[in-house]
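Exercise 7.
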Amino acid sequence: MKWMAAIVCALAANICWAQAGGDFRPASTNVWGAQYPRVDDAGRVQVRVRAPDATKVKLNFWNGPKVDMEKQSDGFWSVITEPLVPGFHYYTVVIDGAEVSDPGSQAFFGGSRHASAVEIPEPGATYYSIQDVPHGQVREVWYHSKVTGTWRHALVYLPPGYDTQPKARFPVLYLQHGGGEDETGWIRQGRANFILDNLIAARAAEPMIVVMAYGYARRAGEAPPDMSTTAFGSPAMLKAMQDMAETFEDDVTQALIPFIDRTFRTRADRDNRAMAGLSMGGMQTFHITLNHLDLFSHIGGFSGAGGLLAPGAGKFDPKTDYNGVFADAAAFAKQVHVLWLGVGTAESERFRSGIRGLHEGLNAAGIEHVYVESQGTDHEWQTWRRALHDFAPRLFKNRKART
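Solution. The predicted structure, written as tokens, is:
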């Protein structure tokens, strides 16, 4: 058959390319059979794309090198980058001014669009890799929200043993993505399911359900705001973000949580419910949980919390901020079992100063919390993988059992 012959030829070509590539090997994020992009042990990336009629091709790593590619005699353009730091890296290719995805890479939703990416392995780090341990399942669910007047989508991680222990009930972590990403991010980019699999197998974390919801919301009947000419940090931008945060708060508390509790075998009380998020999701987490301590007792902000969307809005005041929930440290400690803050040391000053300022303010107010800095990582998935790996084992350790 022609299709079988084509596969055989492609595999043979792949073997030849691999042998010719030296230390370079196909990235784990490639589509099936694609030999490019490739990575080596030093963290360099080799990209090769076909554009025979192009006059200029540029490689654009969003948080890394932006370099011109060289045209080869066969119509392909190629380049080898400088070493990149370990972790997940979005990139695109700019062909004669048109920014496109690399057909050799899988597509990942980030920056409000699908883009290419490569994974640079972190030496010795296996906590987010797939291992020979019992694995949970990630399921897609749809729920109807009267708040938004729409059907909404979420991913739900069910821990190993969920289906084989029909009488068991589990605590729940609501885990939110950041701005420009969506509910698929924590699985596809963050590898949250493997992080939880490995922690649970090592008995380092409690078996738990993890809910990852679509974090953008608009009230039923409301038209979307026109943000095309709105500057970041402007009053109009902050107002739109505040409106979305309040709508998402109502969606989570009035639609999502009730749906999860009646659909899955949860422990449906505050001692068994946590929420965390990265960047925008961290801001959403603080907004929702601190307004609803009747629903949540574990809180995590990964590179995001509080008023990070409004730099210069004022120093954190534990007496008045968040309706004064931090005013009484002893009372807060009885309600919140875990309060976790973290940031990467290579993140921009805007993020680092905001998180550190909140950390220092909480210390001054005597609020017990955990503060962790991820060494050498930026506003990126490696920071947030490490955050989840540290945060999850702290959850539900002193929860009240529910029969």
